[in-house]
Design brief:
The protein is an alpha+beta fold. It has four domains: about 200 residues, no CATH class; about 80 residues, Calcium-transporting ATPase, cytoplasmic transduction domain A; about 110 residues, Calcium-transporting ATPase, cytoplasmic domain N; about 140 residues. About 55% of the residues lie in helices and about 15% in strands. A seven-stranded mixed β-sheet has the order 10-22-21-20-11-18-19, sandwiched between helices. The protein has a six-stranded antiparallel β-sheet with strand order 2-1-3-9-4-7, with no helix packed on it. The protein has a six-stranded antiparallel β-sheet with strand order 12-17-16-15-14-13. Helix 18 links the parallel strand 20 and strand 21. About 50% of the residues are buried. Belongs to the cation transport ATPase (P-type) (TC 3.A.3) family. Type IB subfamily. One of its GO terms (molecular function) is ATPase-coupled monoatomic cation transmembrane transporter activity.
């Protein structure tokens, strides 16, 4: 409100003074202008005092000298104009550079307040501060573990994403240590407290965030950086003009045209325009300081879970045991898992529904906490969960080895006691992650670091796919903060995360970016930038805007100061009196503000605008990919069985593969080649842009024909021994090419469809 009052007073003084002069009351008009000048002088002096207390002397000192000098030499109109410029400039600066409070209220509100402590053999609710070491506690399903402790009985299935960022629940047995702040995602269990609430892990996270918040310093204004050389130069020129001419009015004229209105107006105008522009992309930047810092960042640190990955388990593969069909395995497992609230069960059911499977209603369900669930499905006893058999077949051992190498969670499916298959789940990489990282590098980021609480082998696998420079895995919240601080010593650093565990690291970075759409509220509050949509590529959009905004702001300030220097030289020789200088300064202000408002327009940036027809084509073929992915597993399943099943059965499998290839896959590839790729070539500006993908199409067609030729040679009895090696190699090769090709298309092309088509042309 004070800023608005200041502006109203400045406008009122200038208008009233001008009106009085027009009606011939010049003396009264001068009084009004002088009053406006005096009113502006009070806050300007306060700003200088505040700067001096903070150990700096900014360009506001020039404004104080100009206002004081205008009063001293009775150049009241010039003083009133300067007052108006200062008032409007401060108001714009307040709007553009105001930073959001990092209150972290979400973190505090989530902290456990009660615990279920055993008293007289039964659990009773008590305040968490009353828990002491050695107390026996019950942790009901869905509640937060109140203090650090160890599991006493049962199996604890814990959602640790708030502390470690791990998307998949982790199981703990009796005697295992567990941390406070994690959520019981399974059945109720008992624990023994090993620490009080004040000593526990979660309280430490809160305390760490508070310390970092308290130690965060605000960004200096752009104007203050110019002051390092502009202020001394102005004083030297004004003093020299006075000394040589003996006329104080010349010094005042120099100070008037030197008043840093281009800085106080143009820079905030550019930054406010940039903030408006980022908001159109669904990116909320909490202040001009954050936007400016984002525009000069050179290092980006990314959390894994929920940032580079989707943040929850997804079915990656359904591997059928010999004699079983993968689709049937998934259908039976999902039918049983319909009755479970487990996050993994939900992923299995979701995968079945995405593939259009009809799920029968299970009967006689029975859940074994910490193990799995079984039920009757169509008269067969189906079990879904951990492997039950004491021994393991060679096939099962191979699947366990594969899951370990892939960092996948396994869900085993047995039917009437016989292993039918295994479902593998992983936290999948975001489809737009690869493209976004490439865009960020194009925008000036030269170092990309992954920072995660997840296992090293899982993090390294994702880093290899995405081309990340450095991986810091298995990090605690304290370790994440240390990692961010170390990177910030090297270069201006951006940290991107979405979990509660990321809040301290976000606050420690030069710019913290929260995936706010699905992330914890605390991360959004601790961050300087919040992505309100589930799109990592919006960060690249924001950096494009930030860099362009910073460039325009510096350009506007530089041009404004250059023009002011020219006017100062003219004023110093007596050719520009204070009143005329004030009007010249006003003209300079208008020019640089108009230039600054260019930041409202779209940037050329690093993104690609997708027109409506191409957008629809991409969406169409993306949907076809979703439908074609599950049948791809048939190719590998047939390859796995070659040599282990009779020739007739191998022939039947090959016929199914060839039917899928000829009727579904190859028509899809041909349609891409003739419809999608030409459109993409036009979009990307070069026919060679899709050449490597076309080469993959040719290889897919070649391998499909080779498999078909093998089937022709096999005759009615099935392939002979001399064909098996080449058949196996052809099938595995086709599966590998298709898997890679699908991944490349989804990352390079289909990731362009994560939002609506761009509504406007890029700036030229």
């Amino acid at each position: 409100m004070k800023r608005y009052a200041f502006l109203a007073a400045a406008v009122g003084a200038l208008v009233i003074g001008g009106a009085l002069h027009l009606i011939g009351a010049g003396a009264a008009g001068d009084i009004a202008w002088a009053a406006g000048t005096a009113v502006a002088l009070v806050p300007a002096v306060w700003w200088v005092v505040s700067d001096l207390r903070a150990g700096r002397l900014g360009v506001d000192a020039i404004a104080v000298l100009a206002l004081g000098g205008a009063l001293a030499v009775r150049e009241y109109f010039a003083g009133a104009v300067i007052g108006l410029m200062l008032a409007s400039g401060r108001l714009l600066e307040d709007f553009a550079l105001r930073r959001a409070r990092r209150d972290l209220t979400g973190l505090y509100e989530r902290a456990p307040r009660f615990a279920w402590r055993y008293e007289d053999g039964a659990p009773h609710r008590v305040p968490v501060d009353e828990v002491r070491r050695g107390d026996r506690l019950a942790v009901p399903s869905g509640e937060i573990v109140p203090v650090d402790g160890t599991v006493l009985s049962g199996t604890a299935l814990l959602d640790e994403s708030a502390l470690t960022g791990e998307a998949l629940p982790v199981e703990y047995g009796a005697g295992d240590a567990i941390a406070s702040g994690v959520v019981n995602a399974g059945q109720a269990f008992d624990m023994r407290a090993t620490a009080t609430a004040a000593e526990s892990t979660y309280t430490g996270v809160v305390r760490l965030a508070q310390e970092i918040e308290a130690g965060s310093a605000p960004m200096a204004r752009v104007a203050d950086r110019f002051a390092a050389w502009f202020l001394p130069l102005t004083l030297l020129l004004a003093g020299g003009a006075w000394l040589i001419s003996g006329e104080a009015v010349r010094a005042v004229a120099v100070l008037v045209v030197a008043t840093p209105c281009p800085l106080l107006l143009a820079v905030p105008a550019a930054i406010a325009s940039g903030l408006s522009r980022t908001a159109r992309y669904g990116v909320i930047v909490k202040g001009g300081g954050a936007l400016e810092t984002l525009g000069k960042a050179r290092t980006i640190v990314l959390d894994k879970t929920g940032t580079l990955t989707v943040g929850h388990p997804r079915v990656e593969d359904v591997v059928a045991a010999p004699g079983w069909d993968g689709t049937e395995v998934l259908r039976l497992a999902a039918a049983v898992d319909q009755l479970s609230s487990h996050v993994v069960a939900a992923a299995v059911v979701r995968a079945a529904r995405e593939r259009g499977l009809t799920l029968p209603q299970p009967e006689q369900p029975k859940e074994d906490p910490g193990s799995g669930m079984e039920a009757l499905v169509g008269g067969r006893r189906v079990y879904v969960g951990k492997a039950r058999a004491a021994g393991a077949s060679q096939w099962e051992a191979a699947q366990r080895a594969r899951a370990a190498l892939d960092g996948a969670m396994t869900v085993w499916v047995t039917v009437d006691g016989e292993t039918a298959g295994v479902i593998m789940l992983r936290d999948a990489v975001r489809g737009d992650a690869g493209r976004t990282l490439r865009r960020l590098r194009s925008a000036g980021i030269d170092r990309v670091v992954m920072l995660t609480g997840d296992r090293a082998e899982v993090a390294e696998a994702i880093a290899t796919v995405l081309g990340i420079d450095n991986v810091l895995a298995e990090q605690s919240p304290e370790g994440k903060v240390a990692g961010v601080r170390e990177e910030a010593k090297r270069a201006t650093t951006v940290m991107v995360g979405d979990g509660i565990n990321d809040a301290p690291a976000l606050a420690a970075a030069d710019v913290g970016v929260a995936m706010g759409a699905r992330g914890a509220a605390v991360s959004a509050q601790a961050a300087d930038v919040v992505l309100t949509t589930e799109r990592l590529d919006r960060l690249a959009d924001a950096m494009d805007v930030a860099r362009r905004t910073r460039r325009i702001a510096v350009q506007s300030a530089g041009v404004g100061i250059g023009l002011s220097l020219l006017a100062m030289m003219v004023a110093s020789v007596g050719l520009l009196p204070p009143a005329a200088g004030a009007l010249v300064q006003e003209a300079i202000d208008v020019a640089v503000i108009l230039n600054a408002l260019r930041a409202l327009g779209p940037a050329r940036g690093t993104g690609i605008r997708v027109d409506e027809p191409t957008h629809e084509l991409l969406r169409h073929f993306e949907r076809e990919h979703v439908e074609l992915r599950p049948p791809l597993e048939l190719i590998r399943e047939v390859a796995d069985r070659i040599g282990d099943v009779p020739p007739e059965e191998t022939r039947a499998g090959l016929e199914r593969v060839l039917r899928f290839l000829n009727e579904e896959l190859l028509p899809h590839e041909r349609a891409e080649e003739h419809r999608l790729y030409p459109a993409l070539a036009r979009l990307l500006g070069a026919p060679e842009a899709t050449a490597t993908m076309s080469r993959a199409h040719a290889e897919i067609t070649r391998l499909a024909r080779r498999i078909g030729r093998h089937l022709e040679l096999a005759g009615g009895t099935g392939p002979g021994p001399e064909q098996l090696d080449d058949l196996r190699a052809s099938l595995y090769g086709l599966y590998a090419v298709l898997t890679l090709h699908f991944a490349q298309e989804e990352e390079a092309y289909f990731s362009l469809t994560t939002g609506e088509p761009a509504p406007e042309e890029p700036a030229r």
